[in-house]
Design a protein that fits this description.
Elements (H helix, E strand, L loop, with lengths): L1 H12 L4 H17 L2 H8 L7 H11 L17 H14 L5 H12 L4 H12 L5 E4 L15 E2 L3 E10 L6 E8 L2 E8 L5 E5 L9 E10 L1 E3 L5 H37 L1 E2 L2 E2 L4 H30 L4 H27 L10 H13 L4 H11 L3
Parallel strand pairs: 1-4
Antiparallel strand pairs: 2-3, 3-7, 4-5, 5-8, 6-7, 9-10
Length: about 375
């Protein structure tokens, strides 16, 4: 009952502060200028997948890479709610940038309790000079610790990592590998000898992925030997909430896209939104998107507090927001009819992002099973 009371109180009393609303407005204004559809289409066709000049502005003018990094390491010292707000706006704009991937690496460093690793890497990330990513998954496609087959002798790493977000451009890799003590984390310079990177062909071209092959690459331990999986469990829960926030931004945008088209498109002398079938589609989308917001926002609060509910709420938010975003993106195409299937229309960009996000960090079925286990069902 106590857990339910906390949940209801958190939802009923949750409201963004004036400063958080200003942050949202600031980021949305910036992205409306720097990440319109034309810019997204341009960047998704490039090898890097993002505009270095925009990334520099995000770093120098906005301070976004420094958002959740403590001030002692050159950061702004904000919490997870602020991070969620920024990611929601980036999901809405389909921003092509290494922000999400760098955030994953940042979270791993922050939760490693390794003062030397934080001192070595966080200042570079905070100022935007270092882009980073988490090299965790392998070709077996597993999300649990049994999927980590790369090995390390404590000073170097050998193995292959697949589906590494922005792995082709990241200057710093936080790599999970096995030592005699268990799963451990290591920092690897992507330009070091023994590191080779191969960009992967992906359905969602707005978020690049790569295969990273490590052949005795020099590596520096991050955190205690054998403590890597414990760190990763926390990071993956936080990553699930972060992705849920991003999914909510995309879902809200396609809802707006669909309802506006339903108002504007006239057929048989009346807006198609006046027809019951279209009206019900839009209403169902609205219910799902608003429910997804509640799940994501509560997850952001749990993450900011690092409370005991985080693990279960992270899986809940990831599962629900994945379904809601994918369904909203699919219904948006249906409401647009024939034009929604064309390359020229932006609907397919959101549909592909929705599908790739649905699978990232485990699909909804995986997270529902994980949720069931975590709450003792």
């Amino acid at each position: 009952m106590a857990s339910l009371d906390i949940y209801l109180t958190g939802i009923m009393n949750f409201a963004f502060t004036e400063e958080q609303d200003q942050l949202r407005d600031f980021v949305r204004s910036f992205l409306s200028e720097k990440s319109p559809e034309a810019a997204v289409r341009e960047q998704m066709e490039t090898e890097a997948g993002y505009d270095a000049a925009v990334w520099k502005q995000m770093s120098d003018q906005m301070g976004l890479p420094a958002l959740i990094i403590p001030e002692e390491h050159g950061g702004q010292g904000f919490g997870f709610v602020e991070l969620g707000i920024v990611l929601e706006e980036m999901g809405r704009a389909l921003l092509c940038a290494p922000f999400f991937s760098t955030t994953l690496a940042t979270l791993a460093l922050l939760h490693s309790d390794d003062a030397d690793a934080k001192k070595a890497h966080l200042p570079g990330i905070a100022c935007g000079e270092t882009t980073a990513t988490l090299a965790y998954t392998e070709e077996n496609g597993r999300w649990d610790d049994s999927g980590i087959e790369a090995t390390s002798d404590g000073n170097s790493v050998t193995g292959t990592k697949s589906f590494v977000i922005d792995g082709h451009t990241a200057s710093l890799l936080i790599v999970a590998a096995r030592t005699e003590q268990g799963v451990s984390l290591f920092a690897v310079d992507s330009s070091a000898e023994g590191v080779s990177v191969e960009p992967l062909a992906t359905m969602d071209q707005t978020r690049k992925q790569a295969k990273v092959t490590l052949d005795g690459a020099v590596a520096t331990p991050v955190g205690a030997d054998g403590a890597g999986w414990e760190i990763l469990q926390t990071v993956l829960d936080l990553a699930a909430v972060a992705l849920a926030a991003e999914q909510v931004g995309g879902a809200q945008f396609v809802l707006e896209m669909a309802t506006q088209y339903a108002k504007d498109r006239v057929q048989f002398g009346r807006p198609i939104g006046s027809f019951q079938a279209i009206k019900h589609k839009c209403a169902d989308m609205l219910v799902e998107v608003e429910s997804a917001k509640s799940a994501a926002y509560y997850g952001m609060w749990c993450a900011s507090e690092m409370n005991d509910e985080l693990a279960s709420v992270a899986s809940l938010a990831k599962a629900y927001c994945s379904d809601a975003y994918f369904h909203a993106a699919a219904e948006n195409i249906q409401i647009h009819g024939g034009i929604g299937f064309t390359w020229e229309h932006p609907a397919h960009l959101y549909f592909k992002r929705a599908k790739s996000s649905e699978l990232m960090f485990g699909d909804p079925a995986y997270h529902r099973e994980q949720l069931a286990q975590r709450i003792g069902l």
